[in-house]
Structure formats: structure tokens, C-alpha cells
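#random but structural
TW: two for the price of one
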Amino acid sequence: MPSGLEQLARTPSPQPLPDAVCLARFLAGLPDPRDRRGRRFPLTAIVTAAAASVLTGARSLTAIAEWIADAPRWVLLTLGFAFDPFSKAVTVPHPTTVMRLLSRLDGDAFDAAVNTFLQARAADLEAGKARWRAVAVDGKQLRGSRAAGGKAVWLLAAMDHAGTVLAQRQIDTKSNETPAFIPLLDGLALENAVVTADAAHTQHANGLWLREQGAHYIAVVKGNHPGLLKQLRKLPWSDIALDHKDRTRGRGRLEVRHLKTAAFRHLDYPGARQALRVMRWRKDLTSNKITIERLYFVTSLPPGAVSGARIAAWIRGHWKIENQLHHVRDTTFAEDASTIRAGRLPRVMASLRNLAISVCRQDGETNIAAATRHHARHPGRPLATLGWT
């Protein structure tokens, strides 16, 4: 009788993985927080099992433990759990064992392993594509992680506009997102990346650092930079030609956006080559109320490097990190409703959700809830997606 993976191989896959891109290989270097005498189960087996279960829609530690307990023997053996010749069964960890290990994982090391796997997995998919890569940076609070008298865990993430999470970092409870921007991106290959972020990260040090890495930025300018904002507002926008216009209709409103770009050498921001203004009209189709908003940006992209249409798409695409990552973690995986608080578990669970969402996006899935249900219908599907062939 053919094995489960052999049966699964008969089902067409949207994008076959190179044999070497297997999650377990990238987790092999994770520091094991357990005492050597207490390592009955391999770290990689437990962590990859957790990743596979979240890919099938598991929202909690209980659901992860149930998936492991119900997994067929061939799945458990593939993941690295050992066969017991005396009981003639594959021994699996108790839910408490799973919880203790995940809650003690080094969050930075785990995110680095997961994100390196995702980038390796995406390498073949991105081969031959355009030279520019847009990267959005945004933070999210894990509301349910707040213990009595404490603060909720706050995570800062970087995601490319195609939907792959590139990095994640936990914010110190006595700080905020701003100092974490450079440490978050440090170590990533940023040459020809175009980084977008909210106004809190429009800092001279960040702009200078990005240019030193060979990256570009599109930085929104608001009231936290009053001098630069005043400079941008005073530019002769009425004399500057329209660079791009788009119009969308949906969710009960009509929206029209105009982009103007202007080359100016003396903008008070490191490496800035162009000033941008987005003028946005929104009409509520129920009340007919119209609102007008003007947004100002600076960018290090030189004039003519990319079209106005692409710049406009990158500005709008920044919010994909909110809509396609953070919102999905809340709706599909009930992240904000989760009250997991033990140790590093809130961050680790967020990392597992990032992994599940990213591999689904890489495989062309747009409905993550449907993708998790698809993976749940065959125990071999999450293994195949995570690199076992």
C-alpha cells in the first residue's frame, strides 16, 4: 500500500518546492532551552508539528496538541518522532511538554529560522521577477497577552508586498516601535528594496541607514516633522503635472486618488530625491458625504526610476501588512481573542501564524481560511507545503 506522502504526491501542487527547502533543516540550529536530561522528544519534531498544525487552522496550544495526538503514524515518523519497539507505537509529547518547550524558545532565533526558510522557499518563485521589492513595516499589539497589571506583547514585523513575512521583533515593554526599526531590518538583503512604514518611522536615522544598505524608502510625513511637512506643503503643487490617477469603488464608497511627484534636491531628509503628494477624495455612497485628504511623502527614488503608477501602488500596498497579515491573524486565527500569556508563547504563536499565512500567500492563496481548511483535509498536505517530499 502506498504511503500517505506517496498518495499525496498524486494530487497536483500549486508550486512544487525544491527538495532542500524543508522547514526542519532551518530549525535544526535553534537553541534547545531544555535540560539535556529532559530531551525525550526532538525539538525540531515538536516545533515542526506545531507549524503543521497551525497551517491546518490550529488556533491554540490545545488544538496543536490534539493535532499531534491524532496524526497518523507515518506523519509522526516523518516529523521526527521515534517509534517505540516495545509499545509498537510512535510516542508523542504530552500537551504540557509542547507548551513548556514553545514558551521557552528564543523568539529572535525562532523568527530568524522561520523567516530564512520563507525567503529560501520564495527564491525560486521570485526568480526573474522585477528588480524592485516593496517591504512594509508595521506593528501589532497582541491584546489578549496582557496579564493583570502588565502590558500586552507588541510585535513589529516586516512583510514584502507579495505577502511573505521577512522579519519580526518584539518591542521592549518600556519602549515603542521607533527604536526597533533598524534592528528589525538589520541582516535582511535590502538592496533595491523600497521600504514603506507609518509616520513614526520617518526618522532621519532610518532614512540614512536604509540608503547605506542600498535600499530606498517612501516615507510619509506628518506632524511629527513639522518643518519638513511645512516645506512639502509650500511646494507649487498647482503647477506640477499629475503623475498618476486611479479610481476604486467598493465597500459602499467611491475613492479617487491623484499622485503628483516633484524632484527637489533640498528636502530636509537624508537622501530624499522627490516629494510626493497624494490627494484623495472619498465619497460615501449611502450618505453622499465627500471627504478630501492630502498626504505628503518623500522618497529616495530618483526621478524616472519607476513610474508614478508603481509609486502609487506601493503607497497603497503598504497597508497589505495590516489587511493581509495582521487582520488575518485576528480573523482566521483569533489572535486578539487568544489569552496565551506564558513565557514567550504569544510571540511564538504569532510567528507560527506568520509562517502559515506566508506559505499560503507564496502558493498563490488569497483566502487563508480556505487554505487552512484545505490543509486540514489531508495530514500530508501541511508536510508537503513545509518541504517534505
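TW: number two ↓
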Amino acid sequence: MLRLTKKMQDSIFLVVCLVVSSTLAESTQKSDINDIGMDRNTTNDLLVDDTLQKPNTGRSTILGGNALWKSPVPYVLDKSLDLNTKGVILRAFDQFRVKSCIDFKPRDTEEYYLSFKNLAGCWSYIGRTFINGQELSIDAGCDHIAIVEHTILHALGFYHEEIRHDRDDYVQINFDNVIAEQEGYFKKLGSDLSTTHNVSYDYLSVMHSGKNVLSNGNGSTIITKDPKFQNVIGQRLDMSPQDAQKLKLLYKCNSTVASMFFCDFSNGMMCQMSQMSSCAQSGSEWEVVTEVSSGPSTDHTTLPAGTGENGQKTGYFIYASTSSGQEGDSAWLGTKIMSTQRECKVQCLQFYYFHSGNESDELNIWIREFQDEHDTRGTLRLMGHITGLPTSHWKLHHVSLNATKNFQVVFEVQKGAGNSAGGFSIDDINLSETECPHVTLQIDNLERLLSISNIGTAIYSPRQYSKEGYAYRIVIGLYQTFLGMYVEILSGDNDDQLKWPCLQKQATFQMLDQTPNMKMQMSKQWSEVTQETHKLSNGISAWANPRKNGSIVFHENDEAVYGGIIFGYKYFAFLEELQTREFVKGGSAIFMFSFEDVTPLVNGNSLPCPQVRPMNITARSRNWDEGPCFLTG
């Protein structure tokens, strides 16, 4: 059972500082900041001695058989769990769905199921072990997505990476530095009882302990044979690509539950995407290219990240020109036809685009749904729309979809009224049966901004609205060697109809790993739930109506907008961390945020299916249902 050696702070303390507006924000008043605390960002010591075993079982990764679960794995969220922990567990389930064939479902009457409880610490049995509710403990200090993934992987059949039978080829255990009588933690698994699935040793595994685990204070207990991984082991961002690979091998599956489509055009091909020339107004088409004279000069996939190195010399992306032809001319490209699998009929389309045309040019995103196998034409619905000034960097874009039948995604570039020297480019497309993040904030030239900005400089997103109608914005604070990420509740159009204070909303802060394939990403995310215990010094709820208890922070359309506290993590990411993975790519970093009502989890085991908001776009210039609009191959 886990013994916590470093307690994560549950309390949230209030500090007041001057938030200096950047050029991306309007003039802002002095703001109160609720900092969740630096210790909240520490996970290294939370997974010591975190496995339990039935008597007389060998210490091994399971080899299969009756110890494997049947997917979807039934589960119950016990009332002993706090609300934030429940929300994080559900977010961890989505990571398994995106990266593996393992799904989860609320328990009905199944004998074998996982019972998530707060039993002091983070621990699990190995594999499917008990009927009538196999306990898995996630206490309030373990409510971090990587720790939850780690603990679930134990339940699915995984031991720690550093006790593989071949570990001595990759790491050295310094027993002189191990706490007395704790040497058994490092006992190797026998090759007769375990398997590595022929997957190489994974320093990045979320199942690997940190370098100082169970140290007596005299130095590290785990020394990597390759020194460049010494400060990598023990990462608690996310399960690694090899973790997901081993999970697929253990459960003998190749597919994933929620990933539907990915294309980075790395082979110079279109990934089964097809021109739809019968939809076009002229003969213009999409093409696969390596560069465009008006920009971009390279694809997004191979942009330098981390150390500045990229993976291949030549990268490809797709491009549709608007430099010739007449206003209204268009080029159409459709994905392969796909079917939805999950009960919740919501999908998230994610891609990077580069706009080098005229500000009146448009990139439209449609879905084309087919009623049945006899329907060859389908019905087009507009789901997303991009226009405006050209870009100087690749930009990430999300589009929420709600297809209920077989469908394809269709990209349309339409020429506007003005002169153009370029067009629209697209790269690194991902489509999944998950909900999109609620807000995305991309900061270009981030490392330069960190170095030249005054400490405390803030970058703000535009005002956003939650599903329930609460207004807010996200804030990135620049502190030269690190950055903070926060949310600020704002006054909005619906304040008179809302329930105040704004409680039981889970704020999830995320820094995106821009690895092209979302199944390979290891992003950083932290979550916290708005609670009644969050009080200001005057005793008022931190989540009270800012129109009544806040101060004016900016004006929008001649309206004063009021802001409340700025709540989040001052030490969200350090400069050294930004230089790992693909957190900064081509100079750009991407921050994402979700604000989810988790009230249904107070007495329940799941959240209702998300709803996609209708598009609010002005009328089109022509009838988009004209013509057969069939695929040309």
C-alpha cells in the first residue's frame, strides 16, 4: 500500500499581485490570484509501494488468461471520492479510449468490476483479481491524470517498468541509497513469470518510478545507463506510446476505442481523402505540397521542437490555392467514410491550418452524413468556418461534430472577393470520438516572450461562455523561467439567470504536446473543482457573481466587463519542461482549457453526453445543396 512521503497541499492560498497586460489584452485592473500551490504540481513521491497482491502470486506482469479484463471494464465511483478525483478518473478513461482498445462503462450487474475508492493513498491490485468489486484507491492527493492512469494500468495487468527481468541492461539500482528494509521494491521479475511483449525498455513509461524513489537521502536509487534519461524517468504527464503499445499486445488488439482518423501526409499521400470536384465552382483542387511561396515554407509535422531537431527532412501538407479564379470558386476534399461507435454521438476534429490568402477567403468544415447504405449523396452540414487575416504560423483549430450516422469530414476552401497570393494549407488532422476542449489559446514565439516580458505579464483569451452560460477567460502568466495558467470568472450576458456562486465546475488546464498523432501525445494537464470552501479574505465565495463582487477588468462593445479572482497554477510549467516533448513547436505553445459541470458525479458514475452548439454563421452566397456532390476518387 502507498505511503505518502510528500503530502500534496489541498489548501488554496490567496496572493495579490499586479497583472501587467500584454499587447494581446486590454487594460486590466489589479487582480486577486488564487494559486493552487507549487506542491500541487509535484507527483514524484505519490506512487511508492502502490501495488497489492493476492497471497502466493509471483511478482510479474500478468501473462493473460483469467487475469485480463473484458472491455468495456465495469466500474463504480465510490462516494468516498471527492468530486475532482471523480472527474479526473473520467478524463483518464478518455485517454485509454483514444490510445488503446480498452473502454470503461458504469457497472450494471457484473461480478467483476473496479471499485474506485479513497482508501488512503494510490494503489491497486494487479490484473483482474476479485469479484464483487475490486478496490482501487485514488485519494485526494492522487487526483492527477497520470497517477490515475498508472493505477489503472496496474489493475489492467502492469507492474513497474524498472522491475522487468531485463532491467539491468538499462538501469542500475543503487541499493546503498535505498531506505532500509525497502529493497524488495526493486526485486526483478523472473522471465518465466513475465513478458516484455518484445517491446524495448521504456524510460518514458508512466509505470517507471522516479530516480529518487525510496531514497535514504544519500543520492538517487535508480541510475539510467543512458545519462540523458536520468531526469526523464518517473514522468507523470501521461501514459507513453509504448505503454499503449504494450496494453494492446497484452489484450491482443490493434484498434482504439475513440480514435477515428489521423493524417500527417508524411508519405506525400492524402490518406484516403478524395477530391470532390463536382462540388466545386471551378476546376481548383487540393494538392499535396512541401511548401507554398506565400507561406508556409514547411509542414507542421516536421517543425523543430524541444532540442530544435525534427524527424524528417521533407514534410508534406495539403494546400488549396485562392490566387486565381473568380469569387466563389472552391476546392473540396473529403475524408473516407467513417462510422460512429460510441454511445455519445460527439466527435472532435483537430487540425493545423496556415492562411496565406486574402482575408475574405474562407475555409469551411462540413460533415456529410449518409442515411443508409443506399444513400450515395448524403447531406452536408456546416460545422466550422475560418476566415480573416492571414497567419504567420501554423494554427491549431478544433471543430466539434455531432454525426450520428456514417459520415465523412469535408474541407472546402472558397475564394473571396479580394486579390490573393496564396490560399489555405492543412496538416496533422486528428478525429476522435471525444469532446473538444472548450478553449484553445495559442501563443507564438513563447520562449522569446518569456525572456523579454516583465515578470507578471499576462496574456488573455477572449471572453468565453460555458455550456451553462457562465462567462470566463483563461490567463497565461509569464514569469521568465516559468509560466502560470489560470481561469478568471467574468460578468456575462446570462448572469441574472445563473446560479451563484459558480460551484462544482471542474477546471482542467492543459498544455498540448504537439506530437502530430494524438495517440502518441503526452500532454500536461491539471484539474481542480470550484468549491464552497474557496473563500476570499472577506468571507465571500471566490466563485460569487463578479458583477456584484468583482471589479471592472475591461470593456467590450462599450460594456464594462467585471472580473472575479484569477484561479489556477502559478507554477504550471517551467522553461526546462517547455523544451521537452513537443510543447513548443515552431516557436508556438498551445494551451487548452475545459470548464465542465461535474454535479452529476456527486451521486453518479458518469456525465451526460455533451451537446454540440449550433453554428452561428451568416447566410451563404449560394445554395450549397446544388448538384450531386459525389466523390470523384
